[in-house]
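Anyone able to model this chain together with 6-O-phosphono-beta-D-fructofuranose?
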Amino acid sequence: MANKIKKIGILTSGGDGPGMNAAIRSVVRYALHYDLEVAGIMRGYQGILEDDIVPMNHRSVSNIINKGGTILKTARSKEFSTDEGKLKAAEVLRRNTIDALIVVGGDGSYRGASRLYELSGIPTVGLPGTIDNDLIGTDQTIGCSTAINTALESIDKIRDTAQSMERIFVVEVMGNKSGYIAMEVALAAGAEDVIIPERAFDYEAMYDEAREGNAKGKISWIIIVAEGAAKAQVVAENITKAIGLETRYAVLGHVQRGGTPSGQDRILSTRLGAAAVDLLLNGIYGKAVGVLQDKINVIDLKDATRRAHEDMDRRYQLLKILT
Ligand code: F6P
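re: yes, here you go
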């Protein structure tokens, strides 16, 4: 392999997600296998600017494959978001003899990696790390599968009390711009309805349905809301106002970002980490790595922007048919 790269830097950036540690482990051990050095950069891009960089060896990543969060910590850096910040970061990387950078993060982190490469020529590669599953070029992002399972565990428990006390429950899950988690957990939990940013929602139709259901004796309901589409508390209050039925709400929040990564997330991260190092070894830079139809997929970082899931209407239709 024609390779000019001797030392790789790795960082995690933006919102953390379960599986990021497995990605770090894979990058470190795979790179060491090919006699590359690896430097761990703390707290995302901010850690470059602050020169918070630690050498990584085989043992630095022992016993982390099953741990949530990220041992490198993560952050969103205002300073790095400017071109001046990126040029300063390039200087720090050069001073640390870091020849290339692997970034695990979402679309904002990808934009940073793409621009850094463009401005400085320092090779960068992106790995899709976000629970939102909203990146082009990959079927799944690191953390999404675990976040869905975590949300489901809670929703299944809420269903027990909803049924026992014959109540309507509104459950808010993560996803500011993306309703992917909400739609998936709604389908997997057998929820009665789901409100997501990608679709206009007919509240009157939901009230009518709940009224009709109630008249027929169906009183326990689960409604999933993506945080960016509506606030669970407001939805619950409006239901009570509109139809007079007792409604409770729960906001699952950041529990969805933590915990033991699922097998699927660990495997995805492990494959992607090695694929990122392979790209650098082969002199292929400025790319985002993903898995599409079980195959490693490589696209330009510039093209790996936010993904809109096109089949949300179809999924919604399915949910309603099965309710
Ligand atoms: O992008 C991942 C994510 O968890 C979103 O689902 C959520 O809207 C956002 O991050 C929350 O960010 P923060 O942790 O800064 O509150």
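The chain has a mean pLDDT of 97.
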